[in-house]
Amino acid sequence: MGLVRYAWACAVAVGEVSLLILVTSTWAFGSDITIRRDGCRSGVHLTARDAQLSSVLGSLAKALDFRLVFESDSDPIVNIDEFLHAEDMVSRLAERENFIVTHAPDPTCPLYARIVGVWVLPKSRTYPSTLVAPAGAKGTAGELSEQDRRAQEGVNMYLKAHGFSVPEQKPAP
Length: 173
Description:
Elements: H1 2-29, E1 32-37, E2 44-52, H2 53-64, E3 67-70, E4 77-84, H3 86-93, E5 98-106, E6 109-121, H4 146-161
Parallel strand pairs: 3-6
Antiparallel strand pairs: 1-2, 2-4, 5-6
């Protein structure tokens, strides 16, 4: 009778330890990420639970076939269950990060662009809100170099061609 009780106690202990390992490993390492895309006009359904941002963006990059470079100083935990367009999804996920998204025409969806690259960059450690004047800028604060003036003219032409109002510039001396 003592041997049966001993065997029963060992079996219960092994079962309890196994259950504890299963629960803690799911809790510690179990990040669920699911991505579903339903054609051109609809967006992307992303569900992520307790997953690192780099993992979520990596899964999104694999599912949507774009290049991801993740160099951020932080890798926050993400919990999301949303249905958005891909560009909006990346913006929503990395809203507190310094990131760049590049687009190209989508050959499978002629009226839409697709993401071809996402770069999540480190945040500036020194003087995060300081803007530096371009190296070619000369003169007082109101004057622009010839190169900067031409660049601004190009931007203004683009904006006018797309229906935006642009303030008139003073002619160059």
